[in-house]
Amino acid sequence: ASGTSFSIGSRAVTYTVTDKANLKTTCSFTVVVKDVTPPSLSCPANMAIDTDAGIHTGTANWNLPTTSDNSGVAPQLVEKTGLTSGDDFAVGATTVFYTATDGSGNTALCSFTVTVTDNEASKVSCPANVVVKTSASTATATWPAATATDNADNDVSIVYSKASGSSFNVGTTSNVLVTATDDAGNVATCTFTVTIQDTGKPSITCPDDISVNAPTTGPSTTVSWDAPATSDNWGVDTVTST
Questions:
Q1: Per-block average pLDDT, block size 10, for the chain (242 residues)?
Q2: Other Cβ atoms closer than 10 A to 164
Q3: DSSP tag of 202
Q4: Which of 7, 88, 103, 225 has its CA 20 to 30 A from that of 186?
Q5: Where are the beta strands (DSSP E) in the chain?
Q6: Exposed (0-12), middle (13-18) or buried (19+): which is 75, by Cβ within 10 Å?
């Protein structure tokens, strides 16, 4: 009867009229209920993850989007970018798209973003400690280059607090700081020492031999002379006499 609830789809309605002589005539028509409403589709929230340890990608995991449809039949869910939960994602932002299509061809679209950040610092290795021996007041020290490896950057920037070939004062031990920075701005450091050892003996020049006559009043007399001339590449510490 008119006012009846009809489900999505097509249904024929037939009427029959009968007269008092029991003669009958029928007619019919079709009721078509069209589904023009897209499914309901809800994607996961945007995701922010770090790269996995030692590699340049991050693994992203998520639950499938939730869907429903007015037909009562679950719509077909399709991921449109070829990416699924558990895949590896490159550094940066990647958009994941899903569609849900019901039996009437109505389609809904949703998306979310997976952002992968490289927060892993490079692994930097310093040269061995350097020892230079000299008899001069300064010495030039050289050393092999530091090395650095990174999970995502093949060209890590390496900076030294003192460059190889620098001059150092004798008798000192200096720390050289090595800083490695990858293209994501992550910083790693190491240090090594440069020691300049003194191998030069000090020089001393004594006065000439002195000859004086003893006085007639006794066996001894006071003798004076200028102090010996001394020098050293690091500096004279003490001068003693016997």
A1: 86 94 95 93 98 96 96 94 94 97 96 97 97 95 97 94 97 97 96 96 92 88 91 89 86
A2: 16
A3: P
A4: 88
A5: 9-18, 24-33, 40-42, 47-50, 57-59, 66-68, 76-79, 88-90, 92-101, 107-117, 123-125, 130-134, 138-141, 147-149, 157-160, 166-169, 173-181, 187-198, 203-205, 229-231
A6: buried
- Closest C-alpha to 75, from 32, 111, 31, 109: 109
Q: Which two tokens stand for residue 90?
A: 């490159």
Pick from 26, 62, 59, 56: nearest CA to 42: 62
For residue 237, the number of C-alpha atoms closer than 13 Å in the C-beta half-sphere is 4
pLDDT tens digits for range 42-90: 999 999 999 999 999 999 999 999 999 998 999 999 999 899 999 999 9
Q: Give helix then strand counts, H and E, for the chain.
A: 0, 20
How many other β-carbons are positioned within 10 Å of the β-carbon of residue 228? Answer: 12
Residue 134 β-bridge partners: 198
Q: Taking the model in full, what pTM does it have?
A: 0.71
Q: Which two tokens stand for residue 217?
A: 């009043």
Q: What sign results for the dihedral spanned by CA atoms 96, 102, 103, 107?
A: negative
Give me 132's structure tokens. Answer: 């230079």
